[in-house]
Amino acid sequence: MAYGSSYGMAGVNKGFLEQMMKQNQEEKEAGAATTEQKKEMQAKFQAELEAAQARARKKSKKFGGLGKLLDIAGMFMGPLGAGLTGGINALIQGTQAKKGAESLMGGVNSKRWGNTFMSEGMDEYKKEVDDSQMSMGDMLGGALMSGIGSFAMSKAGGAEKGGAFKDMFKPGEDMVEGATNASFGEGSKAASDFSSKAGGIDNSLEMFGEKSANFDAFGKNKLGGMPSQTFTAGKATPLKNLLGGAKDSFKQMTGDFAEDGLKGMDYQEMMKVMNMMQKIGGQ
Amino acid sequence: MALMDNIMQQFQNLGFGNMDYNDISGLSPEAIQAKLREKFGLGMDDLNPGMFQTIDQGLVEGMMGKQYSGFLESQSQDLLTKLLKSSSGKKANQAAGGFAGSGNINQMQSAAKDVYGKGMSGALSGVQEKQSTSANSILDAINSWRDKASEISG
Questions:
Q1: Closest residue to B151, CB basis, from A16, A115, A117
Q2: Which of A195, A207, A262, B135 is deepest in the core (most CB within 10 A)?
């Protein structure tokens, strides 16, 4: 180059350097715009999550009132009634969990964020929401187990009082024959009412008394038949009446959702669960 | 030029289709944004046109060598003038001793050609270096578009 036109070369170099500097500057500006864009997107994402959580909290408070109301209602329904309303409450809480989960995802553009650098955050959030949500099947199972568990525990604790309890039991057509001397514990009016309406239950309902420490109360020896025979489908039985009443109450309080959920329950299956829970409670 | 072919291939990969070199500097930030949004499956608001630097016409010309043609021409002319001067005139005549084809004049002309050759090859290599740098800058710009879109898409 020393042999060429130094002026010409200097001109070329100058133009070239200017070009490069301009390009570098534009690249820096584009980088800054990218950082800014990412910050804006993060802020929007966070705002959406916060708004969704705020909505979920608001809804949660709304449903909280119903739960308390049901607790109060359960006080007037006797031991099993209280147990079942406990279950209803658990179910409602489960429903709340589902609705809460829906609320937590509502308004969050998961498709958009899942496609961006926030996908990890979105996945985390979804996971958190999923963790807080039980499946509907689990909710129902959990709700009934909770109610039945409450019943078993109340029985184990000797709580047999309750006016509504007797009303839930109506004379059973196929209630254990030859059963006498139902023992609901000392001075239990509900028990004697139950006993008389059931046609004189004796040992058959020892399950409600201190003597009964196991589920044999519904067993062959004491009731004259296995639960599957005792609580025949299509015939009125005390337990069926009780469950029917509970279902009605349940439906009134929770709407069709709970009704639909209970439809799938087989009485015999429920009896098995109850017996199991009772056994646990009795021990 | 392999580098230039590579650039056109990059444009095609990003979905710009078949482009001419002259189209490169005509791409607006919005056009780049739209293509990359499509390519990366991003939403309307996910990419900002400001994130994409355009490619200056000067860079394209630099890559094509157009910017340097004038320089090379003037450089060549300058060297030729020097060559002519050195191969003729008083000094050349003295070297030739008044006779064409003498050893001295041949040596003198060879030296002049060397001056021209070295000068021009120096100028050309300088130009080629700048062409290559311009092409690399264009390639860097295209890669930075992809990197930015990729950064957003995660």
A1: A117
A2: A207
Supply the mean pLDDT for chain B.
86
pTM given for the model: 0.56
- Residue-wise burial string across A238-248, b where 16 or more C-beta atoms lie within 10 A, e elsewhere: bbbbbbebbbe
ipTM: 0.81
DSSP-H helix ranges across chain A: 6-74, 78-105, 110-114, 119-131, 136-156, 163-168, 189-197, 220-223, 227-230, 238-254, 256-263, 267-282
Are the C-beta atoms of residues A88 and A66 closer than 8 Å to each other? no
A5: which chain B residues are within 8 Å (Cβ-Cβ)? 74-75, 78
Q: Where are the domains of chain B?
A: 2-153
Chain A residues with beta carbon closer than 8 angstroms to that of B80: none
Work out the burial of residue B141: count CB atoms within 10 Å of its CB; fewer than 13 is exposed, 13-18 middle, 19 or more buried.
buried
Which of B41, B48, B82 is opposite residue A115, by nearest beta carbon?
B41
Nearest to A26 among B41, B53, B151 (CB): B53
- A-interface mutation test, from B51, B114, B136, most A Cβ less than 10 A away: B51
How many angstroms separate the first and last alpha carbons of chain A? 103
Contact assessment for residue A76 and residue A164, using Cβ atoms and an 8 Å cutoff: yes
Interchain proximity A15–B50, CB inside 8 Å: no
